[in-house]
# Entry
Amino acid sequence: MTVLSTGIGSWPGTDMADAISIAFAECPDLPYLPELPGRGPHAQLVGRSTALLAGLSVDLQPAGWRLTDGSSREHRAARSMLRSDLDVLEELAQGYAGRFKLSAAGPWTLAATMERPRGDRVLADSGARRDLGQSLAQGLADLVGELSRRLPDLELVVQVDEPLLPAVLGGEVATASGFSRHRSVDLPEVAGVYSELAERLGTVPLWLHCCAAGAPIALLHEAGVRALALDLDQLGSADWDLLGPALEQGLVLGLGALPTNQTLSADEVARRALVTLRALGLDPALLQAQLVLTPACGLAGATAAGAVQTLRTVRQAATTLTEQLAD
# Structure
């Protein structure tokens, strides 16, 4: 077994064909459909994810995306762009057989970002939270079904990006006025949304990426999340105490060992990961089988050349780490 490598999702530039080609070339273990936020708000994390919502309409206001009774031009643009991106993927992925990763904003990041029709965040309304979670789950299931028909040789995984999940759990999301904070959401409700999403996806593994400190590792694993992609620099000793047993129980760990604001060599990235992993005392063969190296976060803020080098460094570090774990 070998340690795999992949990217997180966001990518610089506006050329989707070029971005997909790079993902296949630099992440041969686990290529992915990139997100290109440079194309506009309808291509950024939340806007792009609104294209997946089933049965819900949105528009774009100065304050951000809002649920409405009818889709706006921006929402239609997001849906049209997603369809176009899938067409490009279908053309470029002909003949490829293997794992492939799709990504979207997670349900709690959407709830903490999007507004209700009459103001304030979706997070403030339990019914709106439920509707949004169900809509996203159905939309992701529909996307998986469509791609499975278009490209039946893909072994799909779905990653939800949840940078705001710890803030939701900690009651740290500001209200629309900015003068107060939304109450934290009960853990059973948070877990239930992920359980429903995992159930809708069926045999397609659910991954979750969180680059903030405080991801609820045990809750997510128990709710059916099969892989967690986490920033190495945001993990404390308590997190590793939970990750060790979870890895033994089958959790896949996407370890963000290369900070996006630093330039490190492949050996340095491998060394950063190895020091912590060896301290867990786990079977090296288990780590090789259940570890994926990644950048700490997306690469939209990098130059094109820098983003390519980041993926290349992570891939080389994964090879080095595989060898070091075997020693």
User: Anything to note?
Assistant: Residues 126-150 form the longest helix (25 residues).
